[in-house]
Amino acid sequence: MPKRLSGPAEARRPRFVHWLLAAYNIAVLIAASLAINLGWQHPPMPLFPLMLSLLGLWFLAVFAMVLVHEFGHAFFAVAGGWHIHLIGIGPIQIRPDPFRVRLGYLPVSGDVGGYVLAWPLSARRRREGAVPYYAGGAIASAFGAGLSILLALTLPAGSAERAWLTGFSILSFFQGAIFNLIPMRLGTMRSDGQAIVDHVFGSADDLEEAIQDLSVKVLSGVRPRDWDGGLVARLAQIPPEHALRPAVLEMLFAWHFDRGDIDGARRVLATMDEAIAQDGDAAKPFLVSFQFTKAFFIAHVDGDGEGALAILKTLPNAPPWRSLHWRVRAAIAIALKNKAEALLAVRRFQQSLRGSFYVVPSEDDWELARELARRAQAL
Prior knowledge:
alpha+beta; Serine Threonine Protein Phosphatase 5, Tetratricopeptide repeat; 2 domains; 6 strands
């Protein structure tokens, strides 16, 4: 596997290993579903209720597998002296500080993913705790698979509980443990096994590590003005062909803007424009977010409400963009000195922060809402 993240052109070409891994996943899913379906000697049922009952059991098995795997990561991270910021399991996000749970959209496809965001509290803990943290999910999955098999053997043959535990053990062992330990990079993501290889053999790209460190700080609510200057300087050297360049440029914009360096923020915006134009399809995931950022800057800093409004008309006003939409609407109304519209937009912005299923608002978001409210009242 390459040491660097794939560039835009390379990321669009699926390699043979991607198809092989997809086939492996499908085989495991089929095996687990057959274990549930064939192992359950249920009374005769109409086809549709039977399908619904099996779908519920199947979804619970996948969800439980992800739950055990991610909390394994979290357990070993805490044991190694790392700080847990966020545990995500499908539509659920758990924030330990302060403890908050956000329920988002339910995955209609039955596809449930998970992640744990953590960082070491010192360089020594990074060296000593990284491997247990990365391997913790696979260890927990293997342990859960073994325990579920032992429990299944104590239950009557043909029972729904035994069938479910059998399917869960297959998922936990072959997906939660084996699959996650295969060293691989898929686009901008890396498996647990690849993270272990990078740490043990020192093969991780230092730029990639810097991006990950700063991403955790962003999600942890650390103010951009408080980011480490050396880390920001390292990110400023990101090459034009890097797949994550648009996302990094957004971070750099936030750093300049929060420090009051308007000229620096304007230069980053111009660079972002060029990056979006050059990267084409690879930059599309970042395009909407960037356009919201640009519209807000034009209205809030330059006072060009008409120009910002022209951009806003091309952007969505639906989850997960609703909060950004009303933030920009408030800035535009203030720039156009429309007090009634500004107060309405600020109120909708505050409501979107309180009721969002898609983002956990930071203190920065609330501070901006208060600033916009003050400016709207002063019109």
